[in-house]
Amino acid sequence: MKSILKKVGLLVLVVLVIMQFIRPDRNEAGYESVAYFEIETKPTPEIQAILKSNCYDCHSNQTIYPWYANIAPVSYWLSHHIDEGKEHFNVSEWEQYSDKKKDHKLDELIEEVEEGEMPLDSYTWTHGNLEDDEKEILINWVQNLRKKYKPN
Question: CB 3.0-4.6 Å disulfide test: which of 4, 61, 95, 130 passes with 36?
C-alpha cells in the first residue's frame, strides 16, 4: 500500500512540475481595451476606480494578475474564471453590443451586485470586498446609464 501511495505522490508531483511550464494564455490587452466603454458610458473617477478594482480583471481584456497567478494549478483556475467572466460580460467588447444587449448586460450587472453574486467571493478574498456605499454608487450609475440604451 505504501508503495502505491509513493508512486501516486510522485506522479502528482511530476504533473504539478510539468504544469508550471504549460501556462494558460494571459488576458493582458492593456487598459486601452476598456477605452470605448469608458468614452461611451462616461464613468466618474469614483466609478472608474470601482470598475478598475472590482470588475475589469474578469470582465475586460485586461487583467492585473497577482503574483500567485504564475503558479499552476492556480493559473488555470484564474484563467477559467476570467474566460467565464468575459463570456457573461466583457466591457472590451462593448462597442459590438447592440443597445438592447447593452441594456440587458447593465440590468444583469445590477442584479448580480444587488444579490451579492459579484464580485465573486474568491475574488474578494484577495482583492477586498465591494463596500455597501460603493455598491449603491455603482448601481445608481448603472440605473441612470440604462436610460441611454432603453428603447423609447
Answer: 95
Categorize the per-residue pLDDT at 137 as very low, low, confident or very high, splitting at 50, 70 and 90. very high
Q: 71-75, 85-89, 115-119 — which is least confidently predicted?
A: 115-119
pTM of the model: 0.80
Could you give the CA distance from residue 28 to residue 90 in angstroms, rounded to a whole number? 14
The owner of cell 502528482 is 12
Averaged pLDDT score across all residues of the chain:
85
Alpha-carbon span 131 to 135, nearest angstrom:
6
